[in-house]
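Troubleshooting log. The previous run stalled partway through. Resubmitting the same two chains, unchanged.
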Amino acid sequence: KNEVEQSPQNLTAQEGEFITINCSYSVGISALHWLQQHPGGGIVSLFMLSSGKKKHGRLIATINIQEKHSSLHITASHPRDSAVYICAVNRYQFYFGTGTSLTVIP
Amino acid sequence: DAGVIQSPRHEVTEMGQEVTLRCKPISGHDYLFWYRQTMMRGLELLIYFNNNVPIDDSGMPEDRFSAKMPNASFSTLKIQPSEPRDSAVYFCASSPIWANREDNYGYTFGSGTRLTVV
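Second attempt completed without errors. Output:
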């Protein structure tokens, strides 16, 4: 059993759609991270959060500590949002989800 | 700031050879992380440092792997001897602080080193 589960594994959306990617975890954590990996392989850290909600541009990340669940939302999606989104949690160790592959079609 | 700088970008080596990967973190960042990414296992944390001191190396696969951080601006990950199963992309990342600050988006990743061991 994976400590971090993401859903969906693959997601295709039309440009402009509202997108939600979910992350559930089973361990106690200090922080949860959302990472974006572009088709070229580079990784960008989008958010690090331990409670509540964070917003950066069109991206919103929320976390519910009691339910051990986090969501990443993308508003007004754009083809440049096409990437793999990875959820990771850490406390004493790091655990990574397997990623959600997002394709946004023009 | 130029970001986290890794070198080389690509490395092809023969089995049994020593491989050294290099990382220059962002100035002022207290934490440095080494990750490995493969198709089979995804992203894995190998080791991380705080203020140049190794804190957790439980992710280092075996004794063939070693990492050092002799000063705040440089770290190396060495594999000796290398094996084909070490082929992966190795990422270095740095972070200023763990805390949930509004202006802290977490880590800054380097571009990675793609290692191929033949």
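Takeaways: The mean pLDDT of chain B is 91. Chain B touches chain A through 22 residues (CB under 8 Å).
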